[in-house]
Amino acid sequence: EPEAALQSPPRNHYIAEKFEIKGGSKSRVAAAIVAGMGAEAAAAAPAALVTPPEIIHECGAMRLWHRLDDKFDQPRMNAYFHVTLPAIEATPEAYVMADLLTLLVHDRLQDGVRYPAEMASLNAGLDVVGQFTMLSLVFDGFNDKLPKLVEAYFNALANFEVSESRFQKMKEERVKGYRNHGLKPGRQARSLLYQTLMERNAGELDKLAALEKITVGMMRDFAAAVWGAAAHVEGLVIGNVTAEEALGLGEMIRKTLKGAPIAPDAFPTRRITVIPPGDARFAIACQNPEESTNVVYSYFQLGVSTYHMRAMLLLVQQLMGEKLFDQLRTKEQLGYVANASLETLYDIAGFRITVESAFHPPAYVEERINAFLSAYPAQVAALKEDEFTKTRRSLVDSVLTIDVSLTAEADRHWTHINNQRYQYYRGQIIASEINKISRDQVVEWLKHNLVPEHPKARHITVFVHGKNHPLNVTAETIVAAAATAATAPSGTLCSPASSSSYPPGAANRSL
Questions:
Q1: Dist CA 359 CA 333 (whole Å)
Q2: For burial by CB atoms within 10 Å, which of 26, 245, 338, 395 has the most?
């Protein structure tokens, strides 16, 4: 009888055993030959840049997309799902319980599911997304056993269990997470902006206060209530997996849902606040009293994203990035971080500039950012035509980059499903739009959208003050600022992709 400590571990049921390729490049070549192409030409022809997935199942409870891989010839698959749960209320308490639910499910599955699955190269993710309106479940790995992992997670959600001890442990971890999140001033600035713009959001301190009140009984009741209420699943299954297998996966998921389908007028909306023309400023002290770095987060809101607007924003980002860094970081030495980027929130386009500085007060940094933006149209106008064309060509090549892995392709498709606009050919359309943009058009666009002095510019600046330049305001100023934050927006911009409709995004499927 061998020593118990020397016995082999139990069999890992997540290790793949079947590796046959069910589609792959051979199926693509065979299809080309059937279509009339010669065998040699078909074998040499590259895969299409984009091959969208197709809907293989649609009902009141689910919309399921599928694509059998014909490029990468690997026995792998990706499966992504969003579970819309309108029963998650718009309160900090509901937000933190939804967040805690994901941690507790991961924790429950850690030893018996997650660890052996990871040893077998299967990965799973669970998070709260969509302004706390849905759960996101993402899976990837060898296709033979990945459905077992998907089933384990959905069953864990449907039959939620947690002990008092594990609840307290995960609650402590989440408390630490909320406390540490704002210690980085850059995160604090972004969090304040999102609280200002998003209809369903709460700051880390509000979440922390709500989390302190949550008990294990409240957590159990919450999980049972949200999963037992109306729900809708939208999913993508892609890779070395047939349509029949994907349908079987979808059927298994639907069996875990305990509530009715969501009524057509009950789908949650994700709204973004309209910033009125002009400048608005919000200043807060850094959460970490020992932090010396200040942050200036300058955000311009531009409206509902279109192909042309996204093309313009990508080109402006490409043109501006190096120039902004050179001016504000290298020449003026404002700080170690100085960057510019487009920022799209639920299909509402924006552009932001971030500078982190321990050496200058935020007001001075903002002044230098604004000076750069005001002078930048003239810099672009002075750009040589061949240099502008070269930059534009480089951007087009980047936009048209071929997917290098199954996960890269899956992520790209999921982006278009997630925003419910289903613009699978967006890259090619935007590349075409970029090629049409002239230098003079960029100059005019900059003058009307990113120059702070322009009367129609919609601009918010967030200051986070470190200890070197403390925030010095009176109680009356704080109250006035809070009142301004509550009343300044003139309405809400609601992206067409996130408005209430059923089926979700049906109105935009042709885009």
A1: 9
A2: 338
